UniProtKB/TrEMBL annotation, chain A:
This is Hydrogenase maturation protease. Gene3D superfamilies: HybD-like. It comes from Marinobacter santoriniensis NKSG1. Keywords: Aspartyl protease, Hydrolase, Protease. The keyword Iron does not apply. One of its GO terms (biological process) is protein processing. PANTHER family: HYDROGENASE 1 MATURATION PROTEASE, HYDROGENASE 2 MATURATION PROTEASE. GO terms for molecular function: aspartic-type endopeptidase activity; enzyme activator activity. The keyword Phosphoprotein does not apply. InterPro entries: Pept_HybD-like_dom_sf, Peptidase_A31. The lineage of its organism: Bacteria, Pseudomonadati, Pseudomonadota, Gammaproteobacteria, Pseudomonadales. Belongs to the peptidase A31 family. It holds the Pfam family HycI.
From TrEMBL, chain B:
Mg(2+) binds at E44, I370, H420. It comes from the Bacteria. Keywords: Iron, Magnesium, Metal-binding, Nickel, Oxidoreductase. GO terms for molecular function: ferredoxin hydrogenase activity; nickel cation binding. It comes from Marinobacter santoriniensis NKSG1. Coiled coil: none annotated. The lineage of its organism: Bacteria, Pseudomonadati, Pseudomonadota, Gammaproteobacteria, Pseudomonadales. The keyword Magnesium applies. This is Nickel-dependent hydrogenase large subunit. SUPFAM superfamilies: HydB/Nqo4-like (SSF56762). Ni(2+) binds at C63, C66, C414. Its cofactor is Ni(2+); Fe cation. Fe cation binds at C66, C417.
Length: 159, 429
């Protein structure tokens, strides 16, 4: 997968049919047509080996995902994964499907974590199958998309 | 009287949510109960009223790690109900897709979930720091399995290309060619995996299991065969309910399965291997011999080696299927709805997966029955613990808990399938 991706990558993680878990894919959708040439924006299920493929070979990776951090729904946290290990972002109810934190920490252990790796996590209210986004998370999408756009534009300027 | 209770209140590295309570009385294990408290998912109920053609896509959603198994058992059952058969290249493609699922599911369990137990790590991330090349090999293997799922199934998770009667679209030989190159490397990695797992420090713990698996005289079982056991059972899939019974126990939201006459039984890699050794490819048989395995295996801790053999077999078999593949004239066989009942049974990575459907004349599902492997293995997991924990009571509390967790992980339990999983609670009385 990494061969077809550009060096700066936005990865929207989630499932469009699981309530606020749709956040990652919807942020990617909101960014289509607005990104510099050097930036790829992709949706991803969060499956660990595929996600690690998305990270490998990138100069900069920006991941966005719905999370359970104990905050108010819609709250946004921006983690610099290069600086320190990610905290638990919750939502990993299946040990067969290792989560975002495990993929990032495995990439760190295997020395494939990109030089720039930031994670934008948005507190979710619901992961119900077949449900739409909660109002709080839907309201957070434009701000997260803009923050990602600012970050990749700045990174693109450095490249 | 001394009584001790070992509690594992949340079991990591198993699928779903569950817990284990072990009660020790006067130095002997008096009880071992697996408590499964994930909510039931009512898939059998929500299938009622749906069209027969929806079953493969609805049931694929039961599990993100073994969706192909659900698709295969459901299409087999529907085709049985509708009186059609799938053979030739379509049958071969289904087997190829199943190879992909075995490879990705087993590779995940071997490297990410089970190996850390044998090497004393809390999980795959810690293990990767000391064994980066080993973990990379595991990820590469999983990726090879995913590549089959993507190409034949349409995507890696919850494939969308399977339908009753065949596929929506079949691949060309040209499309399969690059997959063969990936699988040649995967086969090398799989052979290295067998050698590596055979060198792990594996506890010595033979059990007298009643082993149950599909058996087909000409192939290692995936999609077809009779249900047989090492104690003389030999039945057609249609007769499953005459010999097996499900019951509810208060501690679990997943039904328990028993043989009507023989109580608990074991499904999964150990059963498949022990009942079908002769059907493995020569390369897989040779690797098993080199790994020190006999023609049967009754040590649950060796399941990690047996899974490695099955990964090697699946890579080898996938290469054979790709080499022999002839593009079919039609991607599927048509079927007309009719009032009927159909049965399907296939070998999910974790073992036997039984489906039964009753249809009306319009092809609507009137009744659905799904018996996943972890439901069938629950009583066997409890029996393992009841029999084995007594030998480990001198271990420090943490080591004892870890050994109990490892014992449960021998089964690669999928509580998302069985409803779904796990906490350890050892109580000394």
């Amino acid at each position: 997968m990494s061969e077809s991706l550009r060096l700066i990558r936005i990865i929207g993680i989630g499932n469009r049919d699981r309530g606020d878990d749709a956040l990652g894919p919807l942020v990617v959708q909101a960014l289509q047509g607005r990104l510099p040439e050097s930036v790829s924006a992709v949706e991803h299920s969060g499956e660990v080996s595929g996600l690690m493929d998305c990270l490998e070979g990138a100069e900069a990776a920006y991941l966005v995902d719905a999370a359970v951090m104990g905050l108010d729904p819609g709250s946004v946290r921006d983690f610099d994964a290069r600086q320190r290990p990610l905290p638990s972002l919750g939502g990993n109810y299946s040990s067969h499907a290792l989560g975002l934190s495990e993929a990032v920490e495995l990439a760190r252990a295997l020395d494939t974590l990109p030089p720039v790796c930031r994670v934008f996590a948005v507190e979710a209210a619901t992961f119900e199958a077949g449900e739409g986004l909660s109002a709080a998370v839907e309201a957070a999408i434009p701000g997260v998309a803009q923050a990602l756009l600012d970050a990749v534009t700045q990174e693109d300027g450095h490249a | 009287m001394s009584r001790k209770t070992i509690k594992v209140n949340y079991l990591a590295r198993v699928e779903g949510e569950g817990a284990l309570n072990v009660t020790v009385r006067d130095g002997r294990v008096s009880n071992a109960e697996l408590r499964i408290f994930e909510p039931p998912r009512f898939f059998e109920g929500l299938l009622r009223g749906r069209d027969y053609s929806e079953a493969p896509d609805v049931t694929a959603r039961i599990c993100g790690i073994c969706p192909v198994a659900y698709q295969m058992s459901s299409v087999n059952a529907m085709e049985n109900a509708l009186g059609i058969g799938v053979d030739g290249p379509l049958r071969a493609l289904r087997r190829l897709l199943y190879c992909g699922e075995w490879i990705e599911s087993h590779a995940l369990h071997i490297y990410m979930l089970h190996a850390p137990d044998f090497l004393g790590y809390a999980g795959a991330v810690d293990m990767a720091k000391d064994y980066p090349d080993v973990v990379k090999r595991g990820l590469a293997l999983k990726k090879a399995g995913n590549a089959i799922m993507s190409l034949v199934g349409g995507r890696e998770i919850h494939p969308i290309n399977v339908r009753v009667g065949g596929f929506y679209r079949t691949p060309t030989r040209k499309e399969l060619a690059p997959l063969a190159e990936t699988l040649k490397q995967a086969r090398e990695d799989a052979l290295a995996t067998v050698r590596w797992t055979a060198g792990l420090d594996i506890p010595d713990a033979e059990r007298d299991y009643h082993l149950v698996a599909l058996h087909h005289p000409e192939e290692y079982p995936m999609n077809a065969g009779r249900i047989i056991s090492n104690r003389g059972l030999d039945i057609a899939v249609e007769d499953y309910n005459q010999h097996f019974v499900e019951s509810h126990v208060q501690r679990s939201t997943a039904l328990h399965s028993h043989l009507r006459e023989h109580d608990c039984y074991l499904v999964g890699p150990l059963a498949r291997y022990s009942l079908n050794f002769a059907q493995l490819s020569p390369m897989a048989r040779e690797a098993a011999k080199e790994a020190g395995l006999g023609h049967t295996c009754a040590n649950p801790f060796q399941s990690i080696v047996v899974r490695s053999i099955e990964v090697l077999y699946a890579c080898d078999e996938a290469l054979r299927l790709i080499d022999a593949y002839v593009e079919p004239d039609q991607p599927f066989v048509s079927a007309e709805p009719r009032a009927s009942e159909g049965f399907g049974c296939t070998e999910a990575p974790r073992g036997l997966l039984f489906h039964r459907y009753q249809l009306n004349a319009e092809g609507q599902i009137l009744e659905a029955q799904i018996v996943p492997p972890t439901s069938q293995n629950q009583p066997s997991i409890e029996a393992d613990l009841k029999e084995m924990v007594g030998d480990w009571l001198d271990l420090p509390a943490d080591a004892l808990r870890e050994r109990c967790e490892q014992t449960i992980r021998n089964y690669d339990p999928c509580i998302s399938c069985a409803t779904h999983f796990l906490k350890l609670d050892v109580r000394h009385e």
